[in-house]
Amino acid sequence: MITETASASIGVETISGDDIKNRYGNLQSYLKSLTSMQVQHSGGLGDPVLLSVRGASGRQTTMLINGVRINDAQGGGYDLSQIPVDMIEQVEISSSGSNGGLYDGAIGGTINIITRDREYQRRIAAKLGNHGYRSISAQGDVNPMISLYAGSESSDNNFNYPVPTPWDGSERNSEEALNNAEFYRHTLQLSVHSGDIQSQVGWRHQSKNIPDYFRNSPINRARYSIRELTFSTGNGAKYSNNGFNLDWSVAASRKNESYQDPESSIGLGEDDNRYKLQHIEMSLAPYWQHEDIVVSTGITGEFDQYQSRYVNDPDSRECTTPDGSCDQTAQQSVININTGVDYQINPQWGSGLAVYHRRYDTSNERTHADNPLRTDIEQSFTGASASVDHRSQHSEIQLSARRSTRIPSLYERYGDRGLMLGNDDLAAETADNLSLDITLFDARSEANVVVFYRKTYDTIVPVYDSRGVGRYENSSDASMTGLESTLRHSLQVAGITFEPSLSAAHYTSELDSDIRAFNGKQLPGIYHDRYLASVTAYFDRKSIQHSLGLDVEVAGNLYLDSGNNNRGDIRRSIDLIYRAQLKTLSASVQVNNLLNNQFKDFSNRPVAGRQVYLSAQWQF
């Protein structure tokens, strides 16, 4: 709703987790409804879900949970679906401007998910859907200091899929129920709050079976599983008093991953591969506030370690095979120092300036080989952002600029998992962004227009030789110009409140590459044109609050490779959700992709098609 979405500052949008759940059912559906966001699926439930912000790639988008980065150092990405919507207190989205230094390092934008640390009501929720989907969760305060969340969800993911060469000899591209695509996830979070200090311990176990998309073999048992333990603590309370203040936080996580393919259905051998990732992060952020001026500083230290072990590959210990399939240990440490000042010149004019310096050290060695071939790399980067904004009774305008960077992931730099070779010379991507954000509003309407330009240097892309062997290289620069617009309105007719909205995004991009096949092409992996329309109706009948929402999306000009040889389908999707609330009980019906349009998405595979969910929640 227009009145429920607020901005902590221009360029930062916040929305509550309850609003996301009530209107959209999950975080992905909510983010997909935003003009500047493209949610990138790669299959059914449990497969990775990435996010593009203002035309940037998923790896150029920073994902935080409670201010702690979850872009893993090995792959550089994240799985947007790993956070159950019931755990979300609110979501902060930053795509431009200078915002205290926390969000300035991302090339595209930053999503900060704040999980619940207090539950003033106990909740039990359940959800059922087609393709064997089911979930249940419970959350609430155990006592005044301790809150608990526990949830479990699973799906058979047995939707119909056009199989290129069916295992049973059927006609090519026959529609078959997908085999071996099951998924489950169990999540637990314990929150403890004492005074200003808030601590959280989380545990997650999930497993996703990997289908044989080409043959749909019923004897396939390939799967990928994750076990993760996380801990964080800090003074989560934000001060607003004048004088000196100090924010601090400590976080740590350990993730064990396993990939198994005992029948060689997916790969070339009987895989039994183990991966371990550890992350430690400490942050200290003092700041001083005096009336209309805030001076902030901060230092953040991060340490990541990645280890791989190929149990069924006899050559992986001695490393007689190519580098990409050797047992290895890689480490990365990052020190980020930032300082900034925000000055509210008068009630109408404000400004911000932030400067940060980032230094990172990475190393890699073959874990068990006689010749470890150890590699050590040290690099640093200095960036800055500045903004000026004007507020009036019916408008907000911000002009902002920033220089950002993205450190190559350990996977891009050193290779692994038998897929890509390493490139020790790989440099960080850098980008210059210039953005103009204009918002006009009154009591019932809001119009937003964004114009931005981004120049990216040393863009990291995968390059393959004639043998099909690949590695990542800094093979190109890239430029992008974007125009995004959104119009929202609210009106009442016969006791029903309608909130329609229309939005459009158009991006023009170009690669400037030393590789002839890439030069002059458009950036892959994003829709260059996207149009959204939605309407939500709210009404009360006999003490029951009803809401009915309809979302329509049409998107096109998606390129799947840097040479623009493969073009994605036009995306046409209609989503519908109905919700009823009666005091402490609520129920909803959600239908995604109502017309069952199985277009090919970012993974160049048909999407799952129509998905229907029934959910209920009881608060007590």
From TrEMBL:
Topology relative to the membrane: Multi-pass membrane protein
One protein family per Pfam: TonB_dep_Rec_b-barrel
Domain TonB-dependent receptor plug: from-to ranges: 8-110
Lineage: superkingdom: Bacteria
SUPFAM superfamilies: Porins
Family: Belongs to the TonB-dependent receptor family. Hemoglobin/haptoglobin binding protein subfamily.
Protein name according to UniProt: TonB-dependent receptor
Native source species: Thalassolituus maritimus
Taxon lineage: Bacteria, Pseudomonadati, Pseudomonadota, Gammaproteobacteria, Oceanospirillales
